[in-house]
UniProtKB/TrEMBL annotation:
<feature type="signal peptide">
    <location>
        <begin position="1"/>
        <end position="33"/>
    </location>
</feature>
<dbReference type="Pfam" id="PF07686">
    <property type="entry name" value="V-set"/>
</dbReference>
<feature type="disulfide bond">
    <location>
        <begin position="105"/>
        <end position="115"/>
    </location>
</feature>
<feature type="domain" description="SRCR">
    <location>
        <begin position="140"/>
        <end position="240"/>
    </location>
</feature>
<keyword id="KW-0325">Glycoprotein</keyword>
<dbReference type="InterPro" id="IPR007110">
    <property type="entry name" value="Ig-like_dom"/>
</dbReference>
<feature type="disulfide bond">
    <location>
        <begin position="178"/>
        <end position="239"/>
    </location>
</feature>
<feature type="disulfide bond">
    <location>
        <begin position="165"/>
        <end position="229"/>
    </location>
</feature>
<feature type="disulfide bond">
    <location>
        <begin position="209"/>
        <end position="219"/>
    </location>
</feature>
<protein>
    <recommendedName>
        <fullName>Deleted in malignant brain tumors 1 protein-like</fullName>
    </recommendedName>
</protein>
<dbReference type="InterPro" id="IPR036179">
    <property type="entry name" value="Ig-like_dom_sf"/>
</dbReference>
<feature type="domain" description="SRCR">
    <location>
        <begin position="36"/>
        <end position="136"/>
    </location>
</feature>
<keyword id="KW-0677">Repeat</keyword>
<feature type="disulfide bond">
    <location>
        <begin position="61"/>
        <end position="125"/>
    </location>
</feature>
<dbReference type="InterPro" id="IPR001190">
    <property type="entry name" value="SRCR"/>
</dbReference>
<dbReference type="Pfam" id="PF00530">
    <property type="entry name" value="SRCR"/>
</dbReference>
<feature type="transmembrane region" description="Helical">
    <location>
        <begin position="383"/>
        <end position="404"/>
    </location>
</feature>
Length: 415
């Protein structure tokens, strides 16, 4: 004991920690994280569910197949959340074997193969019962513009923001993008990387929307990543950025407009979204519009609990202490809606929007900004913790043995 340098403890302890952590994390990633794909749909984000198991794409039976299970599949594929979980081979029958039956995901799994089920190939189903999913449209964002409602079009596909080529790009396509983002009508559909070139891959080419689609990914286009373009042909849009509420998203996040347009407590002359949800790094528009006919003296947004002013517009000039928070430029003082971009964690919370209107009592609305969690990226604790514990139990005897063999056992006493 006495012969050891004291610093050996400081080296051995962290090494033990790093070793244990690495081994358990490797354990976690090898726990049957099986790839899935969707076959037979119009986009890679809908179709029959197939799971790659021992070099074969096998199907999933629709017994107990639910929206929760479908959500796990959509998130695993980077396709946002699920819209529906069709049964009965809605996208045609598969030809592999039936791999999973009675799937019962809890919703927090990052892979379908982590979900409870009967056991591999233990199924009492035919291919007439193949399970399918339809995922939400692919999220879209605009990059490089002065507002979140103009810029280069980028589409989130499998966790990467990819660009769109300007071949056949038209104002009809821009219409779909603007609508999808809640940015009103399009003003123009610039070609040729008008807002700078993207750096992801080029996802869509020859996009030809008819204008009424609810999402860009529902428009006709060449298959994903099938194009003859360079980034100097990146498509862009400029939207009107109306005062309507809008929620979009940014890096590694998924679109899910979930604005609750019920008005919260306060004056009936103000319309506001009660609960706005956004992704970390994304955009939120907190709407607050005065619909009365009197003169507006000022409109002010503040942190409800601390009273800190976030944005204020009165006669004179705007007071905007945080560069990420701006007023939506539309109807002057009557529209006091603000844009926050990019959203930080500290932005979640409750805001008050208050109007000072000539001849009216002060009017106020409460708006709650909440975050939508990132889907499916981290390994669920439910899986990671048991593996970590098992890893520790297996590893400690191994280390003891190794150190014993090497004659370093006395150091281990401190480990
Ligand atoms: C099985 O289905 C896949 C895709 O659904 C297809 O690519 C493959 O050719 C089919 N194989 C047979 C033997 O039918
Ligand atoms: C790619 O572009 C995005 C936004 O346009 C930027 O955030 C990111 O840092 C860029 N990445 C590289 C590798 O240039
Ligand atoms: C536009 O396309 C969508 C989806 O492809 C279709 O449902 C709709 O009927 C089309 N509308 C027009 C006006 O062609
Ligand atoms: C607001 O919306 C988020 C996400 O949609 C939800 O988790 C939260 O409970 C809602 N809060 C209120 C107060 O309604
Ligand atoms: C509001 O103020 C409280 C107390 O200072 C702080 O904890 C919270 O993060 C603030 N919220 C926002 C949205 O600024």
């Amino acid at each position: 004991m006495e012969s050891h340098h004291p610093w050996s403890t400081f080296i051995v302890l962290p090494l033990c920690g790093i070793l244990l952590f690495n081994v358990s994390m490797n354990g976690a990633t090898t726990t049957s994280a099986l790839p899935v794909r969707l076959v037979g749909g119009r986009t890679p984000c809908e179709g029959r569910v197939e799971v790659l198991y021992q070099h074969s794409w096998d199907t999933v039976c629709d017994d107990d197949w639910s929206a929760t299970d479908a959500n796990v599949v959509c998130h695993q594929l980077g396709c946002g959340s699920a819209i529906s979980a069709p049964c009965c081979a809605a996208f045609g029958q598969g030809n592999g074997s039936v791999l999973m039956d009675n799937v019962g995901c809890t919703g927090s799994e990052s892979y379908l193969s982590y979900c409870p089920h009967n056991g591999w190939h233990s199924a009492n189903c035919g291919h007439g019962e193949d399970a399918s999913v339809v995922c939400k449209a692919l999220p879209v964002r605009l990059v490089g513009g002065r507002t979140p409602c103009e810029g280069r079009v980028e589409v989130l596909y499998q966790h990467y923001w990819d660009t769109v080529c300007d071949d056949h790009w038209s104002v009809r396509d821009a219409n779909v993008v603007c609508r999808q983002l809640g940015c009103g009508s399009p003003i123009s559909s610039p070609c040729c990387a008008a807002f700078g070139q993207g750096n992801g891959s080029i996802l869509m080419d020859n996009v030809q929307c008819n204008g009424s689609e609810s999402s860009l990914s529902y428009c006709p286009y060449n298959g994903f990543h099938s194009h003859n373009c360079g980034h100097h042909e990146d498509a862009s849009v400029v939207c009107q950025a109306s005062g309507t509420a809008m929620v979009t998203m940014s890096a590694e996040t998924f679109a899910m407009n979930s604005v609750d347009s019920q008005s919260a407590g306060g004056s009936d002359l103000i319309t506001a979204d009660k609960n706005v949800s956004a992704y970390y790094g994304g955009v939120a528009v907190l709407e607050c519009i005065y619909s009365g006919s009197r003169e507006v003296n000022s409109v002010k947004w503040a942190n409800q609990s601390s009273g800190d002013v976030k944005a204020e517009r009165s006669t004179g000039e705007d007071h905007l202490p945080d560069a990420r928070i701006k007023f939506v430029e539309s109807n002057g003082k009557r529209d006091g809606s603000i844009i926050i971009y990019p959203i930080h964690l500290g932005d979640i919370g409750t805001y008050t929007c208050s109007y000072d209107v000539q001849g009216e009592k002060p009017m106020e609305k409460i708006v709650i900004l909440s975050l939508i969690p990132y889907p499916g990226l981290p390994i669920p604790l439910k899986i990671a913790i048991p593996i970590l514990v098992i890893g520790l139990f297996l590893l400690i005897p191994g280390i003891v043995f190794f150190l014993y063999k090497k004659g370093y056992l006395s150091i281990l006493a401190k480990c």
